[in-house]
Amino acid sequence: MKKIKLIIIIFLVALFPFQEAVSMQSANYKIEKDSINFGGTDDGQSASYKLKDTMGEIGTGGSDSSAYQVNAGYRQMNETYLAITSPTDVTMSPDIGGVSGGTGNGQAVWTVITDSSGGYSLDIKADSAPAMQSGANSFADYTLATLGTPDYTWLVASADSEFGFTPEGNDIVSKFKDDGVNTCNTGSNDTPNQCWSNFSTSYENIAGSFDPNHPDGTATTVKFRAESGSSHLQVEGSYQATITVTAIAL
Predict the structure, then answer these.
(1) pLDDT per residue over 228-238, tens digit each?
(2) b/e string for 27-54 if b means 16 or more Cβ within 10 A?
(3) Distance CA 146, CA 187 (A)
(4) Is 40 left (phi over 0), alpha (psi -120 to 50) or beta?
(5) Phi/psi-derived region of residue 171, left when phi > 0, alpha when psi is between -120 and 50, beta in every other case
(6) Please, are residues 64 and 47 in contact by the beta-carbon 8 Å criterion?
(7) What's this model's pTM, rounded to 2 decimal places?
(8) HEC string of the chain?
(9) In this predicted structure, what is the pLDDT of residue 141?
(10) Which of 9, 29, 96, 199 is spaced 20 to 30 Å from 57 by Cα?
(11) By C-alpha distance, which of 95, 136, 90 is closest to 5?
């Protein structure tokens, strides 16, 4: 029986390099920065402002040359920390029969960590259209019943072959949440294996938060699915989709 192998190639982009150096650390904590001074506060605020101040520091300010850049002082070096995990490429399973059809599944998990006061955004895109290809052959991008709204239940016609995805996690956007019955883009539920959509070659926001989540971070799982219908003849081969995920500190 002819078999079809499905592979997801994953690329990552983080818009803000994370800081690797810390002032002090142990197995239980990290202090990214510290200051010797005689006053100031980290939490001055009201309904209309926030204030972080330091008094008494010396030798503060920015300086640079052709070989280095120094932001000296507690406030000067207050940069955004952004980190994202790097999952390995995904081999979906089981293989699909070229004549008999079938469904292949896979998943990848990205954990984003940031101390940005504005939170973060997690976006995804495919590098080609259709996303899943093997030479001149391909799986069509998943067909939505209603344009722009994920399908609560995965459904591919018996004469078609299609490829799509759904994200799951605490920070997924409202588009991929559901009412717990049969409708996506409404409600607050994150029902497993529901709310399927198609890939685009333009970035789509799938998760994010307006609050920092350092140091634990937040994981988002993207589940991939490809199906060849029982009356569809899919040419055998190793099909690949290249997916790029970008984390942005807000």
Answers:
(1) 999 999 999 99
(2) eeeeebbeeeeeebeeeeeeeeeeeeeb
(3) 17
(4) left
(5) alpha
(6) no
(7) 0.78
(8) CCEEEEEEEEEEEEECCCCCCCCEECCCCEECCCCCCCEEEEEEECCCCEEEEEECCCCCEEEECCCCEEEECCCCCCCCCEEECCCCCEEEEEEEECCCEEEEEEEEEEEEEECCCCCEEEEEEECCCCCEEECCEEEEECCCCECCECECCCCCCCCCEEEEEEEECCCECHHHCECCCCCECCCCECCCCCCEECCCCCCEEEEEECCCCCCCCEEEEEEEEEEECCCCCCCCEEEEEEEEEEEEEC
(9) 98
(10) 29
(11) 95
Q: What amino acid occupies position 227?
A: E
Lookup: tokens for 129: 């259209």
> Dihedral of the CA atoms 229, 234, 239, 245 (nearest 10)?
-40
Place of tokens 């896979």: 106
* Beta strands 161-168 and 137-141, pairing class: parallel
Q: Could you tell me the two tokens for 247?
A: 């984390």
Burial class (CB in 10 A: 0-12, 13-18, 19+), 249: buried
Q: What tens digit of pLDDT does each residue of 42-95 get?
A: 667 777 777 777 776 766 777 778 777 676 766 665 567 899 999 999 999 999
Whose tokens are 């993207």? That residue is: 222
Mean pLDDT of 189-206: 98
Tokens 């883009």 belong to 185
Q: Which structure tokens are listed for 160?
A: 């078609």
Q: What are phi and psi of 48, to 5 degrees?
A: -120, -5
| Section 94-117 average pLDDT | 94
C-alpha angle 83/244/128, rounded to 5°? 175
